[in-house]
Design a protein that fits this description.
The complex is a heterodimer of chains A (802) and B (106). Chain A is α+β, with helices and mostly antiparallel strands and 802 residues long. Chain A contains 14 helices and 33 strands. Chain A starts with 8 loop residues before the first helix and ends in a 28-residue tail after the last helix. Chain B is globular. Chain B has a five-stranded mixed barrel with strand order 2-3-4-6-5. Chain B contains one helix and six strands; from the N terminus they run E-E-E-E-E-E-H. The chains are: A alpha+beta (802), B mainly beta (106). The interface between A and B is medium-sized, with 26 and 25 residues. Chain A: It comes from Eruca vesicaria subsp. sativa (Garden rocket).
Chain lengths: 802, 106
């Protein structure tokens, strides 16, 4: 009877060789049928069918016009039809044949194909009922869980137990053509027979609950109590009554735990056909036929919570630890791992509790796995930095099977490298990947966290072709493993390439890169970029100068933020949690002479001088509280209170030793001697006077501090620089341009140079400004013209004071 | 300050606007002759400065005088601007002073 059906046509439908009746009118048999009502058209009943060509299956839908045929009994399960009008299309990645016209060749017929034998083996009733019952199981869910309890059968996608209704639950599994049956759950069937098409025989005593799985199909099923499942393929009957045996498709790497109530489903569809031998879990079962059907893998990027049964083939790019947690709902453990597939899609998968136990050992970074059936939920962006909106949660029904065959299409890791130069402009706290040459690395230090725990920290300098270098800090374990490796490489004179995946940009003296829990470091990776970097470095990078975007602590670095003095107040600088670091171009108007220094402790504390104020013991010695020692000679350090002015306003700042020396032109000790030891008032005054009205570029640290009840904004001079008029002018020009573009959009008639509230609009002032531009470089012989700052109304004294 | 005869900031290309008027500009000295100096303006045009060259040769020279043509000035005051001078900045100044911010100047 088999010759009547158009053999091999299902394959053609899948391959799209045949799409509709124009190509041919195949003769197929309905092996399953199920009615349902779609929510879109509740008034219409729709009928789904499983069509067979004797060896393969495909899902189909009958057009409403055909409903009467079914209702009248002319078209039923087993019927052989010729499809007179049909269309095979791809719906949600599955091929569905929508049939609008048929000719029923035979209404009642035995199922052709492998089913036959299987049926005979089991009890007939089972067979038939299983035919019918399959109707449901045979259908692929389009994202719906197939819970139908037609006639006491339950097909679940979920854990067992819930849908278990105890009795005979025969389920017929689609055979070897595999692809059409993406079945989910077969829940436990006590004593049910599940007969798969194919060559499996049923002689399974109903009591036993062995499970036989079709070969090749990755039936990763865990024990299910009581379902006899016979898979297609050659499994057969002589299955010794082993309770809860699990037979797995070869290669399945699922741990053979057989908790009783698990429903599993998933004859995963894919199988690279190399399973020659019996799977290890397959004990005492006969050989199984291989399921040669092509795998139905979907790309990771296509996964969404409504995907229903899915399978992905991906490589594990990172694996987290098995973490224990405790939350109001109780204790638990979890581990997660990241996956990457051939299309570059990435997603994180997490397993909890028992599932975690099950899969933890199995997952190895770098291996390829076929993973099916988990639930999808929105990704927790806080912890999950992969570029996917969802994350997978594996559950009891999920299956993981290792692919031993390498797939070069799936890379080991996917990077989205940014150049170090870009980091400077990127937002803090964003997660990036970066690759560069390690130019230097420092040893690990132990840092005490605020929580009281100690942790390791190690930093290195990374350079790349953008001409910038950045400080990369690694924490915790990374210090010891990769950190040590890098250290030895650097010590031996090499400059290794390092890739950092998933690190955070932090703002700390400029921009720096910091590792987080899920970051990964790779030393000397095998990547094209690594090669290029090495070549570049050898060629020019080694000797080229690098601009560091992570300034060292002492530099008090930040990118040169130019402000005017009035902006300090206007913009409330320093009032936020962190101090503001700014640069101002200002003139020293006044300096307090009373306390221009303090007596400092000269003792060395590590590699730095203590510098704490020492108290006079009265007998010529000085006591330091911090070092708890007395010294005979103290050091004198500057503590200058200066009043600065620019064209917008005035402010007081404090300058310490280094800046002080630059401003005064001599060390504090010398000045102290002039005043106190030599008592040379005149000389002293002369020096002080010279300082007044000197103009510098001041780098200030502005921070609000609370003295008693009152918070005041205090500014400290971190660095003092002589003004380079050329570059200064350029900065101003840029500011002008910026203002111009702003004006263009906002139509505010701002007068250009030196924005922010110039209070002195007199033309002479502008003249001064103009002159400012002229007088660049050296002022020789009177070219100075008596101006020199933006300030209004400067007294004559400053002329020549430059 | 003596503002009786204000001079406009010009570079080479702006000089033609002020022919017959007092201007000031800075040139980079290319060569000098008896009675004149040949200079390159900040926008790379050639300017002739009539008047005796300054006693010491310098790289940059500021000239204030009457613009006789679009590329020559009869110098009244010449000032040595030294060797470190940024012509680009000056050029920008000239453009701003004659364009958008003209009202600030003359």
């Amino acid at each position: 009877m088999g010759e009547i059906l158009t053999g091999g046509v299902i394959e053609m439908l899948r391959k799209e060789t045949v799409k509709n009746q124009e190509h041919m009118k195949p003769i197929l048999q309905v092996t399953e049928m199920k009615k349902f009502t779609s929510h879109q058209e509740p008034s219409n009943e729709r009928i789904r069918v499983l069509l067979s060509d004797g060896t393969a299956f495909i899902q189909g839908m009958l057009g409403v016009a055909l409903n009467p045929l079914v209702n009248d009994g002319l078209l039923q399960t087993g019927s052989i039809l010729r499809l007179d009008r049909f269309l095979c299309s791809d719906i949600q990645n599955k091929k569905i044949v929508v049939v609008t016209e048929v000719e029923v060749i035979t209404t009642k017929a035995d199922i052709i194909g492998n089913h036959v034998r299987a049926r005979k083996a089991s009890d007939q009733s089972g067979g038939e009922s299983s035919n019918k019952s399959n109707a449901t199981s045979g259908f692929e869910q389009h994202g719906r869980s197939d819970v139908t309890s037609t006639g006491g059968r339950q097909v679940n996608n979920t854990e067992i137990g819930t849908s278990y209704v105890g009795q005979q639950r025969p389920q017929l599994y689609g055979s070897g053509s595999g692809s059409s049956f993406e079945q989910s759950a077969r829940s436990d069937l006590s004593g049910g027979h599940q007969i798969n098409t194919g060559t499996s025989h049923a002689a399974i005593p109903p009591q036993q609950r062995p499970q036989v799985y079709g070969s090749g199909s990755s039936f990763e099923q865990n024990g299910r109590s009581g379902s006899n499942q016979i898979n297609t393929g050659t499994s057969h009957a002589a299955i010794p009554p082993q309770q809860r045996q699990q037979v797995y498709g070869s290669g399945s790497s699922v741990a053979g735990s057989a908790p009783s109530a698990r429903s599993y489903s998933n004859p995963p569809t894919t199988y690279p056909p190399q399973r020659q031998q019996q799977p290890p879990m397959y004990q005492n079962r006969g050989p199984v036929a291989r399921n040669e059907a092509p795998p139905r893998i979907i790309p990771i990027n296509a996964l969404n919570p409504y995907s229903g049964r899915w399978t992905i083939k991906a490589r594990v790019t990172s694996k987290g630890d098995l973490r224990r947690y405790n939350n109001p709902r109780g204790d638990g453990k979890v581990f997660s791992f990241d996956l990457l597939d051939a299309d570059g899609g990435e997603i994180r998968a997490a397993c909890f509790n028992a599932v975690a136990d099950q899969f933890f050992e199995q997952i190895v970074v770098g291996n390829l796995y076929l993973i099916s059936r988990g639930s999808l939920r929105p990704a927790q962006k806080k912890y999950n930095h992969l570029p996917n909106d969802y994350e997978i949660t594996l559950n009891n029904e999920s299956t993981i099977e290792q692919c031993y065959e390498e797939d070069a299409a799936i890379p080991k890791n996917l990077y989205n490298f940014r150049s170090i130069g870009d980091i400077e402009s990127m937002e803090t706290d964003s997660i990036i990947d970066v690759i560069g040459i390690v130019s230097s690395i420092s040893p690990t230090v132990s840092i005490m966290r605020k929580t009281g725990t100690e942790t390791q920290k190690r930093s290195l300098q990374l350079k790349d072709m953008s001409g910038r270098s950045v400080e990369v800090t690694m924490w915790g374990n990374l210090c010891n493993a990769e950190g040590q490796q890098l250290q030895s490489l650097c010590d031996s004179g090499e400059f290794p390439v390092l890739t950092v995946k998933g690190a955070r940009i932090s703002e700390f003296n400029g921009k720096a890169v910091s590792t987080i829990g899920s970051s990964q470091l790779f030393v000397e990776p095998d990547l094209v970029e690594a090669q290029k970097l090495k070549e570049w470095f050898a060629r020019e990078g080694r000797s080229a100068p690098f601009i560091s975007i992570s300034r060292e602590l002492t530099g008090g670095g930040r990118v040169d933020v130019r402000k005017t003095i009035s902006q300090i107040k206007d913009e409330k600088l320093g009032t936020s949690e962190k101090p503001d670091w700014i640069t101002v171009n200002a003139t020293i108007i006044y300096m307090k002479v009373d306390n221009f220094y303090y007596t400092a402790c000269p003792l060395m504390n590590g590699d730095r001088q203590c510098n704490k104020k020492v108290t006079d013991n009265g007998d010529g010695t000085w006591r330091c509280e911090k070092c708890d020692k007395c010294v005979d000679e103290c050091d004198y350090r500057y503590i200058l209170q200066l009043q600065l002015q620019d064209h917008t306003g005035l402010t007081w700042v404090t300058a310490f030793q280094e800046a002080g020396e630059e401003i005064m032109g001599m060390p504090a000790k010398d000045l102290y001697y002039v005043k106190h030891e030599h008592m040379d008032e005149e000389k002293f005054e002369g020096i002080i006077r010279k300082v007044a009205f000197t103009k510098y570029l001041f780098k200030l640290k502005v921070k609000e501090e609370t003295y008693g009840d009152e918070p005041t904004v205090k500014a400290t001079v971190v660095k003092v620089e002589k003004i380079n008029y050329g570059s200064d002018t350029r900065t101003v020009l840029e500011a002008i341009d910026k203002l111009r573009t702003e004006n263009a959009s906002s139509d505010a008639g701002n007068s250009g140079i030196g924005t922010s509230g110039t209070r002195d609009p007199s033309s002479s002032l502008e003249r001064n400004q103009a002159d400012q531009y002229e007088n660049q470089g050296q002022y020789m012989g009177g070219s100075y013209r008596g101006s020199g700052s933006y300030g209004g109304g400067l007294p004559r004294q400053h002329v020549g004071g430059y | 300050m003596d503002t009786s005869s204000p001079s406009a900031f010009v570079n080479g290309s702006l000089m033609r606007r002020y022919i017959g008027q007092k201007v000031r500009t800075v040139v980079q000295v290319i060569g000098s002759d008896v009675g004149s100096v040949v200079g390159k303006s900040t926008d790379d045009l050639q300017i002739f400065v009539k008047g005796s060259p300054p006693t010491t040769p310098t790289t940059y020279l500021e000239v204030i005088g009457i613009a006789e043509s679009e590329n020559s000035i009869r110098a009244e005051v010449k000032t040595n601007f030294g060797n470190n001078f940024d012509p680009l900045n000056y050029n920008e100044l000239c453009k701003l002073a004659n364009g958008e911010f003209k009202h600030f100047f003359i």
